[in-house]
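Here is one chain, start to finish.
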Amino acid sequence: MAELSTAPQRSRAIEFYRFLFSVVVCLFHFRIKGSFAGPTGAFSAGYLGVEFFSITSGFFLMDSIRRGRAASDGGTAVSALVGSYAVRRFLRLWPHYLLTLSAFVSMRIFFLRTLTVEAFLKQGFFEIFLLQSFGSSYVVMLFWYVSALLLASVLLYWLGLALRDHLPLLALFTAPLILSLFYQHYGTVDHTTNAAIAGSLGLWRVAAGLGLGCAARCLTGQPRRRTPLRSLLWEVGLLLALALIINRTYHSPWDFISILPLTLLVSSVFRGNSPLSRLLDNPLSALLGKISYGFYLNQCFFLHLFGPVIPVRSYWPTAVLYLLLNLLLSALTTALCQWLTVRIPPLFARILSGAERSPMSSPPASGQNRTVGAYRFLFAVVIGLYHFRSKGEFGQAPTAFIGGYLGVEFFTLISGYFLMRTIQRGQAARAQGEALLPMAGSFALQRYLRLYPHYILTLVPFLLMRVFVLRTLTPSDCLTDGFFDLLMLQSFGFPSVVYLLWYSSALFLSSVLLYWLALVLQDHFLPAISFAAPLLLSAYLQYYGSVDQTMFFAAVGSRGLWRLAAELGLGCLLFCLVKRCAPLFHRRFAAASTAAELALLAVILPLCWRCNRDERDFLVLALMFLLAASIFWGNSWLSRLLDNRVSAFLGKISYGFYLNQCFFLHLFGPVIPVRSYWSSAAVFLAGNLLLSALTCYLSQALAAFFQKRLGKMQNAA
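Its structure:
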């Protein structure tokens, strides 16, 4: 499960040990999953084999970090190096993982009938995208390690480039601290999918193991002048100690004691000084190491087949059969994945080389913004219908768009996409010597003038209507509860008279925050946001189960502020993904792109219709990310069809459509008669459309006036 290395000193003996510990892990799972009368103590702590995988991967990771540093010194951008490493790591792990996952889920749904498609979509989203360490819903718990290994490897690779020679020293302190927390709070390292403050416990468990491997790699230099006999006795002694711990303990302090001999064993094998390591340095070990990853993955099949399908007799004969079947299946799936990966890397090589030839800038196609406008308006309608259903006084309100709040996610992803273009211009200006604070202040002012005129144009008439027409508010309430509303700062204060307008405040403040961070972090911004955004969203999943958290307290500001900051960060990543893959999709795959876009809409809209603050929120967010990527590539016939003036107009008024809904949510019932839901909803949409067209042009004139006055003030200064 470790990264392939081109280092000539790599011993094939380590491959044998990888297979050996994968057998240990599999026997542990087989013992606890199987219904056996005994023996109860066989490989009770077999979960410690995972630590061997992590430490070994850390050894190989340190070599990759050193090569990355050399490339960085040669002028390659850190963000490009991290992105390239993440792609290579993903391609190393995901094909075999997806092959096993697809077959296993199909077996459970159509053969064993222990899972439904709906349950898989609801609980298995993070498994599909290999993001279990950011979520807490799974159908295959055993696969948590693959996600944790991918994410922790990329995190440490980035930190290795950022911290350079300080990474090993940091790892020597951080890894024991992380493991000490496991000891103090759980008494064992065997915690995987449980929620942590950020991400899952398994993510930090694997990160600690990788860190130990990196530090040990730096301490493992040339082979020591130890006689072969002493080296042999040393390795055999470590193996016996580990065998005793793994076979006789379970969730005890011995878990943490075992990490030292595991690290020493890996270090000794890498030195290759003992006769045992030399004996195991052979083609058979290389073959076993090659299938060890599949051996770990494919165990999930047999853990579900033994008992329901394959008869369970005495433990050891059944365990031997289990291992043999797993060995045969793993050899088959490994060969199949090798065949697939021979064809996949050239495809991604074209993407990477195309990205190198064309620097990241705005997409060249002219009209893509008009297509986006149609989708922005579509999701503004979805949001409007959601609020209309929940606010309207209907005797029998249908469950139409009870998840319509998810339309906000599309707005934010698109905003993050365009924000990244602005960030890149700002970073270029910084490279030319521009000062940071004036640039951040200028961006904040421009952003405010983009959002505030229309916002205040909607807010003031709405408050006047409530005070003098509907009489549901007093001037005193406006001043005491609406102070943060008037200045568009709801994300810093919680009394509010118009909850629907929280989005404008959160969008403004989070945009400025990310712009400033991007200029401060420069090349490290993309790796940082790649981890920060999913970690923030994982907190929403673990503690609230939904993204629909807005004007509630957070540690700083409101939850809505951090919700939008995370999604803007995903939008920044979307921009880089679109640019990197543009050479591949340019004028190709039109039919497939159209089918994919329609399929995404066919899933997203029904989910918005039915979702109600549960795990499917995050599935919709991921699908919207893919939809936005397809739209910006502009390769599908649907995107080309929507590239017209009507879409441009609808996109222009979509912000006003979102703001002006507050009028009609208060007018229907007290002023406008409420009849059947859909007829009233049609009137609501039509009235909002007309009002939004009017306020859009008024706000543009107002913004132009403010900008003109501001320009005169700056010239005078």
